[in-house]
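Proteins fold reproducibly. Consider a sample protein:
=====
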Amino acid sequence: MIWDDALTSYDFGPGHPLAPVRVELTMALARELGVLDKVEPTGCVPATDDELAMVHERHYIEAVRRVSADGRPDFDAGLGTTDNPAFKGVHDASALIAGASLAAARSVWEGSAEHAVNIAGGLHHAMPAMASGFCVYNDPALAIAWLLRQGASRIAYVDVDVHHGDGVQAVFYDDPRVLTISLHESPRTLFPGTGFPGETGADGTAVNVALPAGCGDSGWLRAFDAVVPPLLHEFGPEILVTQHGCDSHALDPLANLMLSVDGQRTAYAALHRLAHETAGGRWIATGGGGYELVQVVPRAWTHLIAEIAGHPIDPATPTGDDWRAFVRRRTGETAPLTMTDGRHPEFNDLSGGYDPSDPIDRAIMATRNAVFPLHGLDPLP
C-alpha cells in the first residue's frame, strides 16, 4: 500500500469533482474496518523530471512547473481550464502521485511485494504534452514505461473506469509489448470521445469495449468476461497493471453506467484471479475516477484494497459508527450503513450464444471481431 498524507494535496479547488476528500474518506474507512492492518504501508517520493520524461515531453513538464510556481494558467499545457484549473503546487502534487505509482511498480518488479496499490493514482487521461480530464501526469503510463525500461517485455493494462483510458492507450498505441484493455461508456455519450472498437493499436494490442449508457452489473460483467480473460490468457503478461475508476456506479454524477458497489467488487476479485492465472500474481493497481464522494468511492476502494491484501470484506459488513460520524463531520452528509448495495451480481458468459438485438452483446462482438483474430482467437462464442 503506497501512501503519504500529502497525496491528498492534488486539489483543483472547491467545487471541482475530483475532490481529495474521496481519498481521505477511503483511507479512514479502510482503517476503520482493519483493512490497513492487512497491508504493508510504503512511502513514496515525487517522480523526478527524468522519470516524468519517460512519458511526458520536457517542455510540458517545464510548463507544469511554471504553473506550479505562480498559479497562472497555461492553456497550451491544458492548465487553467474548467476540467484542469491551474493551482500553485500542481507539479509537486502531481509528481508525488506519479512517484507513488512508480513505487508500486518498483515493489512488484523487485519482488518486495506481489501486489501493490496506489489508491490516489489512476490519472489515465494525461497526454504526453497536455493535461486532460482532471489528469496532469499519467501515473499508470509512467509505471508501465518504468517497467519496460527495467526489462519487462509484456505488460497488460486493464482500465475499468467509466471513461476511456485514452492517455495510456495513446502512449503505448504502437508498442506491441503493452496490451491496453479499456471497458468504458460509449464515446458517443461520454468524454473523451475515443475508445471505439476499431482503435486496435499495434497487432491488436489496444482493446476497447464501448458499452451503452445504462449498462448495469450483469451486462458489464458479461462484457468483461467475454473480452478480458481470453485476451490476458493469450497475451501472457509478466505483470498486470489495473486502473479502478469507480465512476461506473449508478450514483456517479458524471457518467451514465449503472453498476453497483457489488458489481465493482466482483470485477476486482476477477482481476485478482487473472493476475495469478496470467501474470504470476504480479499486480499493480491504482484508483482513478469516482465522483460520488461519500456513497461510492470509499466503499469501492476499501473493497479494492482488501481484495489486493487477500482479505476480502463481507459485503454485509457495517461501515462503522466512528467512520459514519467522521463522514458527517467532514462532509455534512449521511454515510452508507454497510459495504453493499444489496446486489448479488454474477457473470453471465456467452456460452449460450449472443443476441444481436442486444446493445451490450453488439458492443461485445464489435470488440471481439476487431481484435480477437489479431490474437489468433475466434471472435465467435
Notes: The domain at 21-41+114-375 is CATH 3.40.800.20 (Arginase; Chain A).
